[in-house]
Write a structure and sequence with these properties.
Elements: H1 23-33, H2 37-45, H3 50-63, H4 68-74, H5 79-90
Helix pairs in contact: 1-5
C-alpha cells in the first residue's frame, strides 16, 4: 500500500485502451482535420486568425515530429493554438 503522496507518469499509450489516440495518431488527426470549416470557425471565435492557424498546421506538417507535444516543446510561438487544437481533436 502506498502511504506517501505519489505521482504516476504514464506514457500516451496508457490511454489507448480507453479509445484515446497515440501521439502519432493524434498528430495525423490534427493534420487531417484542423483546417475544416467548423474548426476554423472555432479558432476564429477564440481569437486566432485563419492565416496563423494555417501557418501552424503547415509548420507542424513540415516538421514531421513524433507527436504534437514534441513539436510544441521547441515551437513555443504555437503552444497556445497547439493546446487548443489538441483539446478540440480529443474531445
Amino acid at each position: 500500500m502506498i502511504t506517501k503522496n505519489t505521482v504516476f507518469v504514464l506514457g500516451a499509450g496508457a490511454s489507448v485502451p480507453y479509445k484515446y489516440p497515440t501521439g502519432k495518431e493524434l498528430l495525423n488527426e490534427i493534420l487531417h482535420d484542423s483546417l475544416n470549416t467548423e474548426a476554423l470557425e472555432l479558432y476564429k471565435k477564440l481569437g486566432f486568425e485563419q492565416v496563423y492557424v494555417e501557418k501552424f498546421i503547415e509548420t507542424l506538417r513540415r516538421a514531421d515530429p513524433e507527436s504534437v507535444d514534441a513539436f510544441l516543446e521547441y515551437q513555443s510561438r504555437y503552444r497556445e493554438i497547439g493546446k487548443i487544437v489538441i483539446a478540440r481533436t480529443i474531445i
